[in-house]
Amino acid sequence: MPSPSRSSSIPAVALDEQALIQECDVKFTRRGGPGGQHRNKVSSAVVLKHRPTGVTAEASERRSQAENRSVAVARLRVELAIQVREEVEAFVVPLVRQYGGSQFRVAIGNEVYPVILADVLNRTLANEGDVATAAEFWCTTASQIVRFLRQEPQALATVNQAREKAGRHRLK
């Protein structure tokens, strides 16, 4: 798991788009665009590599380089939430009232989704994959936390690895 070597006190997953891009190597590449495999080869694909952690994300499905950059940033935030353990509690405490509760629902496209995912993973992985601590903090049930983790298969796989290492059964 990559560890951050950054000077900023704000976790990378909580940075705004411009600040996060400043910490990245940005590469524009040619990929097949809409219209078939040999048509519309355009340089609109965007690959971001977060320099402090080495985490990468890319997007090439849109025609616009700017749109692909925004999609790549969103994907990078999710990857950072899954792969990098940084303290995000100060950023999520104000969100508990709005997003916590019995119906723990946060849409993947929501700008705070990666920060909440990072917090849920931090709390779960700190307790050998036990989701109860995260559920208690977010004022919801363990099953709601598992449902939330299922939105990102890689996040659920990370929790299941920690659970297996601790001798617990896998979450489904």
From TrEMBL:
Pfam families, per the entry: RF-1
Annotated ranges, domain Prokaryotic-type class I peptide chain release factors: 23-84
Entry-linked SUPFAM superfamilies: Release factor
Gene3D superfamilies attached to this UniProt entry: 3.30.160.20
Gene Ontology molecular function, alphabetical: translation release factor activity
Source organism, top-level taxon: Bacteria
Protein family according to the UniProt entry: Belongs to the prokaryotic/mitochondrial release factor family.
Protein name per the record: Peptide chain release factor 2
Protein source organism: Rosistilla carotiformis
